[in-house]
TrEMBL record:
Descriptive protein name: Transcriptional regulator, ArsR family
Residues covered by the HTH arsR-type domain: 19-107
Organism: Halorubrum lacusprofundi (strain ATCC 49239 / DSM 5036 / JCM 8891 / ACAM 34)
GO MF entry, a single one: DNA-binding transcription factor activity
Coiled coil: none
Entries under InterPro entries matching the protein: ArsR-like_HTH, HTH_ArsR_DNA-bd_dom, WH-like_DNA-bd_sf, WH_DNA-bd_sf
Lineage: Archaea, Methanobacteriati, Methanobacteriota, Stenosarchaea group, Halobacteria
Superkingdom to which the source organism belongs: Archaea
One Pfam family matching this protein: HTH_20
Length: 184
């Protein structure tokens, strides 16, 4: 006889590739991504900012963390400068991370917005599948690791990836900022 039986719903979805997930296993790397999202910095500058934020790491350790993030494709060299007979590298993150918790009681405050969003997304997804469903299923089949696995989760991943990329594009073009500033 079971001592506890509970229906545990999915409350959160995190989508990333395994290489990026591994790179984010260290909280210092998440801080580095956050710092480099808004400003390009040298290893020395990252080291100083980490110290200011209470992370006392050796400069060689900071360099290691930046290299892990670079290898995972989350940080790039943004600029090179000649400096004292050598080259100074400036790094910038191409990844934005949101590590927030909504305030207590926000579920109730946002419930109408959630319902509206759900209905709008349902309509969008129906249209998306009507127009591009074959392409989505084709890509999901290519992702499928074996003949016994279904493609449902892969299709969900592709949809989430499309939504993330669309939001990213709107952010990069300034359209998202325009919408948010018009609402104020």
């Amino acid at each position: 006889m079971a001592l506890l039986k509970s229906d545990v719903p999915i409350r959160e979805v995190v989508t990333t590739d395994p290489e990026k997930a591994k790179a984010l296993e260290n909280d210092v790397r998440a801080k580095i991504i956050d710092m480099l999202a808004d400003e390009e910095m040298t290893i020395e500058g990252i080291h100083e900012e980490l110290q200011r934020r209470g992370e006392d790491k050796a400069e060689t350790t900071v360099r290691h963390h930046v290299n892990v993030l670079k290898d995972a494709g989350m940080v790039e060299i943004a600029r090179l400068e000649e400096a004292g007979g050598g080259t100074r590298k400036y790094y910038k993150s191409n990844t934005r991370m949101f590590s927030y918790d909504l305030p207590e009681g926000s579920d109730q405050t946002l419930s109408a917005a959630q319902e509206h969003t759900t209905e709008e997304l349902r309509t969008l997804l129906e249209s998306l599948y009507e127009t591009h469903g074959d392409d989505i299923e084709l890509v999901a089949e290519e992702m499928k690791p074996c003949e016994y696995c279904g493609t449902q989760h892969y299709e969900e991943f592709i949809i989430r990836e499309l939504l993330n990329r669309a939001l990213l594009e709107l952010g990069e073009t300034g359209d998202l900022d325009d919408v948010l500033s018009q609402a104020r």
